[in-house]
Structures are given as C-alpha cells and as structure tokens.
C-alpha cells in the first residue's frame, strides 16, 4: 500500500530495493541520493539507523530506504534523517502515522498495531519507549538511552 504519492521512478526503485532486501541477509538497504548502488546494513533493530542519524545524517537525506520492520522508533529516525521514501514488509500504526505526519511516502505490505519483541512476549522495547513520545527529539533521546544501555550490558 502507498500512503502518499510517489514519483513512478521512486516507486520502482523502492520495489527493487525491497526485493533485494528480501533476497539478502541485510536488515536495511539504503539508496543514497546520487549513488548507483544501494548500501546494505546488518545490525539488529534500529542500531544502523541510529548510527547513521548520529554519525552520518547527510547519507539519509533524500535517500530511499527498504527495511524489514518499521516501528515508531525507526520511523522517528527516518524523519530525523529526512529520508525521501520508505518500503517495509511490516509497519506499526504509530510509525505509519508519524511518517504521514512528516510527509514521508511509505509503501508497506502489512500494518500492525504494534511491533512485538523477538520472542513475542511483549512490545518491541524501542516501540514501547517511543509510543508515548510526541517529539522526534524525545524519541531519539530515548533510543540513544536504550542503545547505550544495551552496549553497557555487553561489557
């Protein structure tokens, strides 16, 4: 389903990215404006998007993005990075509403009420943190705290 009008070329490019994502071991594919090849990313959850927004936000600006699952946290990072358009297999309603509010076209296969955690016992921890937040900056700060808490557990 397409939430906002997309130029036909961008729509075809998003569909191509989505197919490539489904055939790869990547979790995220990014077609950077002006580059011929898509960039592949492999970290779990929103870590790659967070790293891009934090360290290389210019890469996301006006990029086309294919992701497997998009919750509100990922959507907030996409808004913050100013992506041009998104294709995903699964999107949560709060994520879709956020992308719509910020004028980012999104193609998706399935809309769900919330994103679940990996073992399906609770909501995704990032989704859970971001649902009550209304500002993109609040979502970013909450995601940052979560990622740093996960990194400190590994030490």
Give an account of the 3D structure.
With 155 residues, the chain is an alpha/beta fold. It has one domain: 3-Layer(aba) Sandwich (Cytidine Deaminase, domain 2). The chain has 7 helices and 5 strands. Strands 2-1-3-4-5 form a 5-stranded mixed beta sheet. α5 links the parallel β4 and β5. α4 runs parallel beside α5. The chain is globular, with a radius of gyration of 14 Å. The mean pLDDT is 93.
**How many β strands by DSSP?**
5
CATH topology: Cytidine Deaminase, domain 2
Could you give the order of strands across the largest sheet?
2-1-3-4-5
> Mean of residue pLDDT?
93
**Number of DSSP helices?**
7
C-alpha-based Rg, rounded: 14 Å
Helix content: 40-55%
Task: Briefly say what this structure is.
With 155 residues, the chain is of the alpha/beta class.
List the SSEs and their pairings:
Layout: H1 8-22, E1 28-31, E2 39-41, H2 47-55, H3 57-60, E3 64-70, H4 72-81, E4 85-92, H5 93-101, E5 106-112, H6 125-130, H7 136-154
Parallel strand pairs: 3-4, 4-5
Antiparallel strand pairs: 1-2, 1-3
Helix pairs in contact: 2-4, 4-5, 4-7
């Amino acid at each position: 389903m397409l939430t906002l009008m997309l130029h036909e070329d961008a729509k075809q490019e998003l569909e191509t990215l989505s197919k490539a994502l489904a055939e790869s071991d990547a979790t995220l594919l990014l077609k950077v404006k002006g580059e011929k090849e898509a960039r592949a990313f492999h970290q779990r959850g929103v870590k790659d998007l967070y790293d891009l927004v934090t360290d290389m936000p210019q890469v996301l600006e006006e990029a086309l993005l294919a992701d497997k699952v998009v919750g509100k946290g990922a959507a907030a990072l996409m808004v913050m990075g100013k992506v041009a358009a998104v294709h995903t297999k699964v999107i949560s309603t709060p994520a879709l509403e956020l992308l719509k509010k910020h004028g980012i076209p999104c193609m998706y296969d399935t809309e769900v009420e919330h994103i679940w955690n990996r073992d399906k016992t609770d909501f995704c921890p990032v989704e859970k943190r971001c649902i009550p937040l209304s500002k993109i900056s609040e979502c970013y700060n909450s995601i940052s705290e979560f990622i740093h808490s996960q990194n400190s557990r590994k030490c």
